[in-house]
Amino acid sequence: YERMTVDYLNVNKINFSWHPQSFKMPNEKVYHPDLYLIDKDLWIEIKGYMREHSRKKWEWFHTAYPNSELWNKEKLEEIGIL
């Protein structure tokens, strides 16, 4: 999903940064969102399958940074990437 998303963003000339920043979580672990859509001020996490530890990190990040979206299979189909 990640490769197809990057290809889509490049073909459509959408300004993004790949893994541009790390965020320290309250439990001292580090979270790395997949990409940042610069012109939309939007953090993106791409997931094909959400494991429990990934879900917890995502929930923390999305709460702390509401300008974030989870792009799962359904969202990628909606956008037209899949």
In brief, what are we looking at here?
The chain has helices at residues 2-11, 52-64, 73-79, and strands spanning 16-18, 23-24, 30-31, 35-37, 42-46, 68-71. The chain is of the alpha+beta class and 82 residues long. Helix 2 (52-64) links the parallel strand 5 (42-46) and strand 6 (68-71).
Largest sheet: 4 strands, mixed
Sketch the topology as an H/E string, one letter per element: HEEEEEHEH
How many separate helices?
Answer: 3
Mean pLDDT: 96
Number of strand segments: 6
Beginning-to-end CA distance, first to last residue = 8 Å
Q: What general form does the structure show?
A: globular
Uncertain ranges:
none
Strand order of the largest sheet: 1-4-5-6
Which structural class should the secondary elements be placed in? alpha+beta
Q: What Rg is obtained from the alpha carbons, in whole angstroms?
A: 13 Å
Features:
3 helices; two-stranded antiparallel sheet; globular; alpha+beta; single chain; 82 residues
Describe this structure in words.
This protein is α+β, with helices and mostly antiparallel strands and 82 residues long. It contains 3 helices and 6 strands; from the N terminus they run αβββββαβα. It has helices spanning 2-11, 52-64, 73-79; strands spanning 16-18, 23-24, 30-31, 35-37, 42-46, 68-71. Strands 1-4-5-6 form a 4-stranded mixed beta sheet, sandwiched between helices. The longest helix is centred in the C-terminal third of the chain and has 13 residues, at 52-64. It starts with a helix and ends with a helix. The mean pLDDT is 96.
